[in-house]
Amino acid sequence: MSDFNTLSESVISGNFRLAKDLTQKMIDGGTNPIQIINEGLIAGMNVVAVRFKAGDMYVPEVMMSAKAMSVGIELVKPLIASADIPTTGKIVIGTVSGDMHDIGKNLVIMMLESVGFNVVDLGVDVKPEAFVEAVKEHQPQIIGLSALLTTTMLNMKETLVALEAAGVREKVKVIVGGAPVTQAFCDQIGADGYAEDAAVASDLCKKLVS
Ligand code: B1M
C-alpha cells in the first residue's frame, strides 16, 4: 500500500493520531504538501462522503474522520502559500436566528472543507442582517442556512427577504438544510437548493459553483 493510501485509510478509519504521525512523516520525507492533501487526506474524506451518503457510515464515525483530516491539514497548511491551496469556492454558513443547534452545521462545514471550499462560519443564532453583512464582506458564491426547529426554519425566509431588501440576493445562491427542512419548504421560500445531509450539501455546493 502506498503512503498516500495508508494516510487515506487513517482518515477513513478516523484514526487521527495515525493521520497526524503519517502526515508528519511525509512532510519530513519531503512529500509535496499539495499531494499530501489531495491524494491522502481529501482522498480519504471523499471515500467517507460516499459511505456516509450510502448509509454505511454514521455521524460519530464521520466526525472522527473529519477530525483526522483536519489534524493532517493543520500540519500541512503552513507549508503551502495560500494561493496554492485548492479552493472550490467560498461559502458563508450559519444556523439561523433563534436556533442554537450546530452539530449538523459543523458536519456540513467539515464536508465542504474536505472538498476544498473556503467556509466562513457565522455560528449559531445568526440574524438576517448578519448574513447580509457577511455577503458584503466575504463575497461568497453560496450562503448556507441551517435550522433544527420548526419555529426557527421560518427565519430562513426572513433571511432571504433581508438579502433581497439589501440588494444582494442575486449575488449568491442560498442553500437550506436541517432536520425539519424539506425540498418543498425550500421551493416555497425561494431558496436555490436543499440538502438533506452533509454529503448531499457538499455535492450540491459543487454543482452550484461549477
Ligand atoms: Co434540540 N431539538 N432543542 N437540542 N435537539 C431537536 C431538534 C428536537 C427535534 C428534539 C425533539 O423534541 N425530538 C426538537 C425540535 C422540535 C421541533 O422544532 N419540531 C428540539 C428542541 C425542542 C429543542 C429546545 C427547544 C429544547 C428546550 O430547550 N425546550 C432547545 C432549543 C434551543 C435553541 O436552539 N434555541 C434545544 C436545545 C438542544 C441542545 C442545546 C440540548 C442540543 C443542541 C447542541 C448543539 O447543537 N450544539 C440539542 C440537540 C442535540 C437536539 C437533537 C437531540 C439532535 C440534533 C443533532 O445534533 N442531530 C434533536 C433531535 C433530533 O434531531 N432527532 C433536537 C445530529 C445532526 C448531525 O443532525 O442537525 O439534523 P442534524 O444535521 C444533519 C442534517 O439535518 C443536515 O446535515 C446534517 C448532517 O447530516 N443539515 C444540513 C443540517 N444543517 C444543514 C445545512 C445545510 C445542509 C444540510 O445547508 C446549509
UniProtKB/TrEMBL annotation:
Pinpoint the B12-binding N-terminal domain residues.
1-88
In the record, biological process GO terms are:
homocysteine metabolic process; tetrahydrofolate metabolic process
Position of the signal peptide:
none
Q: Tell me where on the tree of life, at the top rank, the source sits.
A: Bacteria
Q: Using the record's annotation, list all stretches that form the B12-binding domain.
A: 88-210
Query: Which PROSITE patterns does this entry report, sorted A to Z?
Result: B12_BINDING, B12_BINDING_NTER
| Entry-linked InterPro entries | Cbl-bd_cap, Cobalamin-bd, Cobalamin-bd_sf, Met_Synthase/Corrinoid, Meth_synthase_dom
MF term (GO), any = metal ion binding
List, alphabetically, the GO terms of the cellular component aspect: cytosol
Keywords on record: Cobalt, Metal-binding
Q: Its family?
A: Belongs to the methylamine corrinoid protein family.
* Name this protein carries in UniProt: Putative cobalamin binding protein
Organism of provenance = Desulfosporosinus orientis (strain ATCC 19365 / DSM 765 / NCIMB 8382 / VKM B-1628 / Singapore I)
